[in-house]
Design brief:
4-stranded antiparallel β-sheet; alpha+beta; 149 residues; 23% helix
Amino acid sequence: MGAIENHTAMMYGYRLGGPADNWSGLANELVRCAASTDGSSWLIPQVSWETKGMREENHPDHFAAAAEARLAASGLQSLLLWTYSLGRADEGHIIAAAIHEPECGPLVLDPGTMAAASQYDAALAQALSVLELRPHAANPEWITANYYA
């Protein structure tokens, strides 16, 4: 098993956020959930596809797995739900259609890559509809994010 490394990438899509930042990227109504074991609580977006895991444990993998399964069932498995770092121990989500991570050198996008990303706008809009998510951002954007792999 390899070491977990911190990566920085630019992702074209929508920042959703997560429980740690109260889903700052979303305009959805939020539902408060509480753990029966320790009484801790967190927020999740109000969606018809919420799972028992999302309600019972504050862990980003529950949301990500359920969202990815819903995307795949709708033929949108080419879109990625990335979990990114919000801080030392907190994580959020980005729904992304394109990822740019250079092998070496600065994290810079050329004009051609930036312009080509708009080809994903319709698929991203469809994904938001399938996931019943309403982002604050009117359009997809290039987001710089740290994630672990």
